[in-house]
Amino acid sequence: NLTLTKVLERGKNLDTQKEEEYPGRQETVFLALLNLSQWFIFTFEMQRSGASRTEAEYFGDYTWVLIQRITLPLSIFFRFHSTVVLFDAWKNNYKVNTEV
C-alpha cells in the first residue's frame, strides 16, 4: 500500500510536454486494473463466510468476524479510491494536446 501511495504521488506530478514520451503509462494502467480486480474480490468474494475458513480457524469465529467487519470496508474504500485516482492521473497526465 505504501508503494501504491508513492506511485500515485509520482503520477500526479508527471510532465507531459513531450507527446512521444509517456513515462509510467503502462504501470499506471496496470496498477489501476490491479486495484479494480482487488476491489471486486474484496467487495463480492471476501464477504462470504466460506471464503476465509483458514483465518476463522486460526483467529476463532467471533474474532475473525470482528476483524473482517472492521477492515473490509476500509479495504474496499482504499481499493476503489486508488483505482479512481489512478485512472484520473492517467487521464490528466497522458492526454495529447491538440492545440497548435
What does the model show?
The structure is a single chain. The chain is 72% helix and 0% strand. The termini are far apart. By secondary structure, the chain is mainly alpha-helical. Helix 1 packs parallel to helix 4 and helix 3 crosses helix 4.
What is the element layout, followed by pairings?
Elements: H1 2-12, H2 25-45, H3 53-59, H4 61-93
Summary keywords:
single chain; 100 residues; mainly alpha; 0% strand; elongated
Shape annotation: elongated
- Report the span from N to C terminus: 40 Å
Largest beta-sheet characterization? none
| C-alpha-based Rg, rounded | 18 Å
Q: From N to C, what is the helix and strand string?
A: HHHH
User: What percent of residues adopt helix (DSSP H or I)?
Assistant: over 70%
Q: What's the number of extended β-strand segments?
A: 0
Task: Detail the poorly predicted runs.
Answer: none
Please give the oligomerization state of what you see: single chain
pLDDT averaged residue by residue = 77
Strand content: under 5%
Look at the helices and sheets and give the structural class.
mainly alpha
Q: How many helical stretches?
A: 4
